[in-house]
Amino acid sequence: MMPSRKRSLRRALLATLGATALFGPAVFSGCATSFTPPGKVDTLRVLAVTIDNPYVYTCLPPAEEPKCKGLSEEDCTALCESLRTANFEMEVHDAYGVNEQGSERLINILWIGGCFNPEGDQYALCAEPLIKVFEAAGPALAEAIQNGEPPKFPPGLPVGYGKKFSITVPDIVSSRPKPDFGPHYGIGYVFFLACDGRFGIVESDPSAAGTFPIGCLDGEGRPVSADSFVPGYTQVYSFADGRLNENPVVTALTMDGEPLPEDFAAIPTVPTCDVPPQDRNLPPSCSREDPFTACQTYEIKVQVPEDVAEVDPDATGSKDEILTETVWVSYHTDTGDFDGDIKLVNDPTTGYSAPHEVKWIPPAVPGLATIWAVVRDARGGSNVVVRTVRVE
Amino acid sequence: MVLAALLPGVARADDPPKDPPPDSGPSAIPRGASGAVAKPPAAPAPAATPGQATLPRPLTYVEPGYTKEATDANIQGVVTLQIDVGVDGKVKKAVVVGPLDKGLDDLAVAAVLKTDFEPARRADGTPFAGRIFYRYTFSLRTVETPVDSDASAGAPRTTESFGGVVLAAGGDALLAGAKIRVKPAAGGETRELTTAETGGFSFGDLPPGKYEVTVELTGFQPLTVTEEVVAGERTEVKYRLSTRAGDGVIEVQVRGSKPPREVTKRTVTAREISRIPGTNGDALRSIQNLPGVARPPGLAGLLIVRGSAPQDTQTFIDGTPVPLIYHFGGLSSVVPTELLDKIDFYPGNFSAQYGRVMGGIVDVGLRAPKDDGKVHGLVQADLIDARLLVEKTFTIGNVPLKLVAAGRRSYIDAWLGPVLESTGAGVTQAPVYYDYQLLAETNPSPNSSLRLGFFGSDDALSLLLRDPSPGEPALSGNIGLHTAFQRVQLRYENQYSDKDSLSAVVAYGHDDLDFNIGPLFFLLDVDTLTGRLEYTHRFSSNVRFNTGFDIYRAFYQVAFRLPTFPRAGEPPGQPFSTRQVREISQSGEVFYPAGYIELEVTPMKGLKLIPGLRVDYYSLNDTVDISPRIAARFDLIPGYPRTTLKGGMGLFTQPPSFNEVTPPLGDPSLVSNRAMQYSLGVEQDLSKQVEVSVEGFYKQLDSLVLSFTGTSTDVQSFSNSGTGYVVGAETLLKYKADERFFGWLAYTLSRSARIDGPGANERLASFDQTHILTLLGNYKLGGGVEFGARFRLVSGNLVSPTVCDSSGGKSRVVVVPGQNGGPPQIQNVPVCDPNRTNAVYHAPSGAYTPIPFGGVASERLPLFHQLDLRLDKRWKFKSWELSAYVDVQNVYNNANTEALQYNFNFTARQNVTGLPILPSIGLRGEM
């Protein structure tokens, strides 16, 4: 049988050389631990900022405004004021919970608005008004943080503190020239900062191409790391044609088809998965136990109606058909892991996509697992659902 | 043109050779004082037989002499020269390929340069430039025709049973130094002789019977015949040897200029190309080892020439432009090395016959099919692909028709697909490429050639994204890439006379570029008609005039569905895949004609000036570009050791790309990008085998097309507001190929900078590489074994970082204003603050908007260095050859950084490394 053994050896040698040549990149470069996926919340994270009115409504003069038909001038004014008011709510989570000294971390959340129609709609050009508002609010803010109580800002300043914030948008449409093509609209930016520390102005770094002007400082005035500071921004629009944008509707968050209850007393219990954390964040090409086959997995799915996507008034397809919004969902958890964390819910041309669930495996240690699902549309609308699962 | 292959010869018995000239009398051979004598290579031969092509033949003999040092040292031997004989019979160049010590090779070169030759002639008697080997035998005593040493010493010679003469095929050049081996067919001892300077040999006292006779000489195809020795009779033979391809006679010339029309000339032989480690024997990949060519990033098959963008370099196959020259990944070029006759590579300052680009030119020439009447074939397989080539000459009527057909296909898909599947990736179609060539050539007259060719290339890849990537929720499904081109080409060349020649090439082609990812796609189909017509007239030996016309006409169809810029009401920072798509379908045509004139003037010996002018028209933006150019070469010291000065300057223009100039996306008022190029250099022979060339270059760029987003978020605009420059110097120190070794050191120092509009700061171009060093060599160990090594040391690629590199611990000095009116403070602060805010969370999209740390191309990745090794083994059989190789890239497994990768919120960065150690093996059979 010698000839066949020689042939098989030769074949094996060639296959090994060939496999090394081609597998090499995967073997040699792919087994380093990859980054933490965005679905895993293991630091201070802002997961969503929902706005009840992503498109605020700017009324016409009371006599011309159709929404005011039958209303008194006073009632019309109040109605229009409410339609121009955008209410923001932040979904934030601090995975650390406690600081190095063991005491609970107090996350300060600051909102700054008042930047409307910057040149080219570029948010970066809001730096100057942002700093001005911050400096005006600074003394009240510092005092409040020091005393541990809500700040008392000067009236009329577009600034807020805490998880919620409201701003009444002025007429940002008329003050902007009508474009040559496309709808006539205005835009306003709102900035928010979540910080384990106190806020302070950051000097621009001449060696860097850009700097965010407000930072989060520790007790000694040094900037804290990104684990403890999240700056961000969102925006509101207003259209001359009065169009609105509703947030996507979310009906439930299910696990294996069963809605996860809001009532803490009724939350389900699942067993731990014994695959250690350091083995969970490796590429599938490396030889280690795949936790998604070694442990029981749970299907997590956000429930939305099939008509969750609104018609997009300016969007038409190649055959002039009217298109709908793009809608997608991001899943997050503070413990355990997903096999993927972002899924498409609605495609503009093909429509609703039913399979938008993910698989979740529990952590290796018992405790409470929080799971978020944030559903967004491409026009600034969003909705959040949060549930808890017990792991034993 | 190099005379590569002589006419095939057939061994036949003929008249016995003439005796060498006597030692005394009017025709005596001159001797030196100590009895030294230099034997001339051959006596003048009769004129060419009508209807038969001939090699150059010497008409005069110039005594080389003997140096005192050689005489004192008793040096004897053979000096072998490779000489180029011009149409005027003058020796233009002599290169020593087989040297001797003590100045004898210098004497041989000096003598042959003064020798008059009858030039090589075609069958109709037309002279043309030719190259032959030429030998001087230096001896300190009279050399007699060698006889078989096995003949009984002292025994009277009765009958010389077997003898003859060895000549080169196609003429009467006698070949000295050829090895004759005689082996009895019935078995027994083999006898061996070497031919004298007269080409003669003689075996005495061979027993009657049949013998296998083998004749071998370096640079010629070996000859094996069966002869019969009859008792009592002398068998006289005349053997003619044909030159052999692949041993340095056929050159695949990679040239900076097709002499003498450009500034820089580089020559790489077929042997060098097929043996450079890391290139898998691919001729076009060998270009990347020359000075002035930057290392492409990762597996990209790009040519970055003297700081120019990849799209600024154009590639041609036999004068026909093609969209790409490498299969994807740069693993292999679209034309196999075996079909190449030459590669003309112009890194800059190229002739007026080329235009429409500002960078470099690569013009690949396909060789003519072999015309010896035999079937030739080649089969090669390695880990990536397999190739096949077949060629033969047919005769239809009285007309010879030479045909060659070749094809190649990769088979990575056979095993990469399952590998990718096992790693979790979905594969619809694993990467596959193939290319094919079919050439038919004939000679309507002795001075003309007509070739019809069909060639093409196809690359395809399709992956399945089962899940969208983080940050791109709508990007899933199939990712497909397909590029292909085909050309049908007709090429005609005619050397009407010594003064006039015409060349024409016309081609019809089709290009495909298809890309799709999920619901998005880009489809481009282009039908092209290209042509070039060039006429050359030589007014005198000092003035030559070239003029030509070339056209590019294309009919395109483009369709794409791609995300637009954010519309009103759509947050700008959201994922690319969630933006509203724009679907456009468009067709049109492009017409780019051009004309040029050029003069080649030799006002004095050694000086050549080439002024030229090119005029281009571009239909898309209705512009005319006029480009004057001039190049010069001056042989400060002609002959050995040659010193040549060279230089050039000229204007080069490149039209805006299709999307920049075509509504609704583009702006038809744009003008062409421009580059004013200057270069100055010197070439110097350091020894017979070593030469060095140094060249400095400078390019001033202006009217560069830039894109920017206007105040409306839905419009991208273009303008000719960019400027820049490229400055550098390149050096090539080369050991020319000899029988054992070849190698070179190439080094380029350069800087490529851009300025993005008036008032903008200067920045480095994104593909700038300050230092590019390549050191390579190949050595024949003997027994058919060769070993090669290549080492590269290149500056790292430039990146535009968002997260700074905190690993180095570097600090910088800053001056901080004093507090409370105090003096300013000097502080050391880290260059990189690990707590810097690198990105801002954009709530509507859930993604992070990065805040750039440095500007465009502001950080350089670590130095790239890599060692590649190669081992070749060849086995020669009677009618075919087998060779095998092992080529290992990145022998010490250096983790070269090719790019940066960031996490989702830009708080961390990671180096993306290139290929690890990568062995490859191949087998090749050739007949």
Describe the protein in words:
The complex is a heterodimer of chains A (392) and B (927). Chain A is α+β, with helices and mostly antiparallel strands and 392 residues long. Chain A folds into two domains: 4-239, no CATH class; 252-391, no CATH class. Helices cover 16% and strands 34% of the residues of chain A. Chain A has four helices and 23 strands. In chain A, the strands form six sheets. Chain A has a six-stranded mixed sheet with strand order 13-23-22-17-19-20, with no helix packed on it. Residues 1-30 of chain A have low confidence and may be disordered. By secondary structure, chain B is mainly beta. Helix content of chain B is 4%, strand content 51%. Chain B has a 22-stranded antiparallel β-barrel. In chain B, strand 46 (839-842) and strand 47 (847-850) form a beta hairpin. Chain B is elongated, with a radius of gyration of 32 Å. Chain B starts with 36 loop residues before the first strand and ends with a strand. The interface between A and B is large, with 92 and 81 residues.
- What is the 3D form of chain A? globular
First CA to last CA of chain B: what distance?
26 Å
Strand content of chain B: over 45%
Compute the number of helices of chain B.
6
The span between the termini of chain A is: 58 Å
Sheet having the most strands of chain B: 22 strands, antiparallel, barrel
Largest sheet of chain A: 6 strands, mixed
Uncertain segments of chain B of ≥5 residues (pLDDT<50)? 1-49, 141-160, 245-260
Strand content of chain A: 25-35%
Described by the principal axes of the CA atoms, the overall outline of chain B is elongated
Mean pLDDT of chain A: 83
Kindly give the count of domains of chain A: 2
Number of helices of chain A: 4
Q: Roughly how many Å is the radius of gyration of chain B?
A: 32 Å
Average pLDDT of chain B works out at: 80
Q: Ranges of chain A with pLDDT <50 over ≥5 residues?
A: 1-30
Work out the oligomeric state of the chains in this entry: heterodimer
Helical proportion of chain A, percent range: 10-25%
DSSP, total strands of chain A: 23
- Class by alpha and beta content of chain A: alpha+beta
- What sequence of helices (H) and strands (E) makes up the elements of chain A? HEEHEEHEEEEEEEEEHEEEEEEEEEE
